[in-house]
Amino acid sequence: MNRALFTLAALTITTGCHGKYKRNANALGKVSVTVRAPANPEVVVGGPSLDVDTDGEITKAERAQQAAQAGVQVASVMLGTKAQKKLDRAVSSNEARAALKVAFMEDVDSQPLPYTVGEKGKSRLTIEITDFGLDATSGQPMAFIRTRTTIHNRKGDRVYRATETCTRTLGPGMDIPFSGADELVAVKQLADLSPKRMEKVVTAVVEQCAEEVSAELVSHL
Question: How many CB atoms within 10 Å of residue 81?
C-alpha cells in the first residue's frame, strides 16, 4: 500500500470509529445518566504455572522446582482469599456505582459538550462497571476498574460506545506499603491491607476512571 492510500485508510479508521457519535451529538439534547455495577469487586491473583513432565522421569531438581511452584500457587490462593474477604467488606458494587456517578457528574459538567448531561433527558448515557477490584498479577499490587459507556438517542438508537480500563498502582502515594515486584509479595501486600485502605484505593481509581470517561466524550467528537 502506498503512503497516500495508507494515510487515507488510517484517516478512515480514526474518523469512522466514533463517526456516528460525531454526526448525532448535536441532536442529543438533554441526556440522562445511569450508572450500573452488576459485578462485585474481586481480587485477581495468578501464581506460576506448573511445569509437569509427563514424558519421562524427572530429576530431583525438577521435582523440587515443581514442589516450589505448587507451594507458591497454594500460598497465592490463600492470600488472595484473605484479601477477597477484606475487599468484600471494604466496598460494594453499589458504593462503587455511587462514587463513579458523583465523580462523573461533577467532571462532565465542565466539559464542552454540544448536549446537556443530567438526571433527566430523553437521550440516555449509561456507564456500566464491568469489573473492578484489586490485582496482583503484574507483580505490582494495583486497583483497577473496567467500564463500558453507551449513549442512545431519543429514538433508542445507540450512537456511542466506548470501553475504559483504569489502574492505580498501590505505592507510597496512596499510603500503602510497597516493597517488591514479585507476584507472591504483591498478593501478600494486598492481603495485609485493611478494609479501610482498600476502600480508599478502589474509590480513588473509580473516581479517576469517571473523569477519563467524561474526557473521552469530548475527545471522541
Answer: 12
